Amino acid sequence: MANTERGASLLTLLQQLPTSGARAVEVFTNDEGTFLGVPQLARDVAGEAPYMNGGDSDIDAPIYRWQDGRFVEHDALPVHGGEDLAYFEITGRQFLATAGIRTGKGPYELDCDAILYERAAGKWVAFQHFPVFAAKQWFAFSLDGRHFLALAQGVVIEGVEPKNPRTSCIFEWNGERFIPFQTLDGPWGYNFAFVSFGTEHFLAYADHVGGSPVYRWNGEQFETLQLFDESGGRAFRFFEANGMLWMLHANLLHHTTLYRFEGGRFVAVQTLGEAGGRELCLIDGERGFYLVRACFITGTPKAPVVVPQSEIFEWREDRFELVETFATSAATDARTFTIDAQRYLAVSNSLSAEIRFRTDSAVYRFNG
């Protein structure tokens, strides 16, 4: 489905990246340039039957550098069973947090070390190690001059007993390192989103089996404001429009829902798409405000059906309208970035239609 109203596609394919089981895309800019990191879950093993939770997870996360209008290979970090890279800065110091769900080639070890790196003398140097269990995402945010790092982790598998802490949690920067701040209830975490609206601060947490809560800061810690008590939580996004706070929630097993904050709660106002949505990317373009819904799989891990396209919606009169679909292959993430006034979109693809990990990810020019 092309963007028929505008007469041309919102996306122009710029580059394909040879990734394997890509689970996220992290674009960041520092004094050395603009970079794209891609954590990878696994590589295919010759002779092994297709299985989305199989493969060799002892794999690196490539880091590309923007050069002459495209990304070129630059560096790599050992992020086994890679799920996430998160770049952030604190008082001029540059950090890159890494998260992997497992190590090994089968059987797998879900008790791992997540490593926080700091940039020093042109290199990423290990700064702090965290014992984790099936880690999925790091999320850095700040409020009232305090710096936090939230970890989404955990999985529920019969017969697997974690040795490391299993629940999602929040760490706080004490000026020298991150220390435990608050433990959350979720047993199978995926994602966070944070927003400050007026004098309020909200943190949303997506969990696959424990329900997905939105927390409100009470001045000392985060307390539950509202719980979306359903399985399949994958991602949240906040935005402001027309003087109101809005929230999007992607649920892999159902649809994506748009909420408006009113009366002290988030109230559902629109459903978007069908099952399979995994990640959400908001784009404030030159000609409009857009939502990219990265679509992953339907079915089950043992019998997955790769969703072959993702969707772009445009914000129109307090709701999103579908304006374009584009080819993806079990997409796991989408990030937008701008270089020299040109906006781009990076998308990670994780599986082929044949349930193989070796699948290109893509970088597009965004024309909206």
Secondary-structure element series: EEEEEEEEEEEEEEEEEEEEEEEEEEEEEE
Largest β-sheet summary:
4 strands, antiparallel
Number of helical segments? Answer: 0
| Helix share, percent | under 10%
Radius of gyration from the alpha-carbon trace, in angstroms:
19 Å
Distance between the amino and carboxyl termini? 16 Å
Envelope shape: globular
What can you tell me about this protein's structure?
Helices cover 0% and strands 60% of the residues. The protein is built from no helices and 30 strands. The protein has strands at 11-17, 26-30, 33-37, 61-67, 70-77, 82-90, 93-100, 111-120, 123-133, 135-143, 146-153, 169-173, 178-183, 189-197, 200-207, 212-217, 222-228, 233-241, 244-251, 256-262, 265-272, 277-284, 289-295, 297-300, 303-306, 309-315, 320-327, 331-339, 342-349, 361-366. It has a 4-stranded antiparallel sheet, with no helix packed on it. Strand 15 (200-207) and strand 16 form a beta hairpin.
Defining key terms:
mainly beta, 0% helix, four-stranded antiparallel beta sheet, 368 residues
Secondary structure layout:
Elements: E1 11-17, E2 26-30, E3 33-37, E4 61-67, E5 70-77, E6 82-90, E7 93-100, E8 111-120, E9 123-133, E10 135-143, E11 146-153, E12 169-173, E13 178-183, E14 189-197, E15 200-207, E16 212-217, E17 222-228, E18 233-241, E19 244-251, E20 256-262, E21 265-272, E22 277-284, E23 289-295, E24 297-300, E25 303-306, E26 309-315, E27 320-327, E28 331-339, E29 342-349, E30 361-366
